[in-house]
């Protein structure tokens, strides 16, 4: 029912356990070991990383698009970098780090108008992302002042070890290997104990496993680093909701909105929170607001329409409830899958019963 939200990028590398090598036919080589590949990347040997990717992972270019893009970006092969970043955007719409890096690629091509455009898109996708704001402001100020543009060095994020290990954690999560997912997320924190994103990521995993106390621990640790993170506050609201502390849940969702009023997820979450408390007018208001600010997240829009459908059913408006349910399912067919609703959306039995009766 309550939707968690986290912005991330996958660098999905096909390998086994942290200390193992892959077997490709008869070839067993240290070159296809993840630690070897990452070492080459961290050493700046981007051509070698591309060679190894093409040798061992040629059939996984789509899944590895972001890593390819970063390597080509470092090599100043900007058209190729953009091609791979655009592939990444198909799976991670409006991801601020990818948008920023597209801006960097245009900057390196001396296309400063498009560089500014993508730095701007990156920043409005996440107004807490200071790298994009710094890049935009620096390029803009240099342009209007007439100073030498080549003195600017845009920041290319997501290349440090904490980010890489965090991405590997998410890759293993999507492979269903939670042991290695947790291993790499914790390894990310070992590299940088102030890397907040990995605390939030661990909390997400524990929340999904219904281990809400541990999830709350990691979110509390993340809050010590920076409490003004809308993703963090939204996820705190989710955990407090599951712990039945509705007052703290409401406060956290509202703080997430205060930090980013275009963040659709906490509006949707408040809709479900108020629905459970029989505050129907507020519930409807926040479901509608979620759809108003939601620019392109189709699955979230489907969930908000589902919430409105349930609300209308409870109010006895069966015809409108059915219309909203049909609209919800048309946007995301998984809304007809009870396992998806239970495992991913975490609806309770009462909501599911109403949904199935519509």
UniProtKB/TrEMBL annotation:
Ordered alphabetically, the record's keywords are: Signal, TPR repeat
* Segments crossing the lipid bilayer: none
Cite the SMART domains for this sequence. SEL1, TPR
Span of the signal peptide: 1-25
Among InterPro entries, the record links this protein to: Sel1-like, TPR-like_helical_dom_sf, TPR_rpt
- Tell me where the TPR repeats sit in this chain: 162-195, 230-263
Tell me where on the tree of life, at the top rank, the source sits: Bacteria
Question: Is Signal among this UniProt entry's keywords?
Answer: yes
Annotated PANTHER family: CELL DIVISION CYCLE 16,23,27 (PTHR12558), CELL DIVISION CYCLE PROTEIN 27 HOMOLOG (PTHR12558:SF13)
Q: What is this protein called?
A: Tetratricopeptide repeat protein
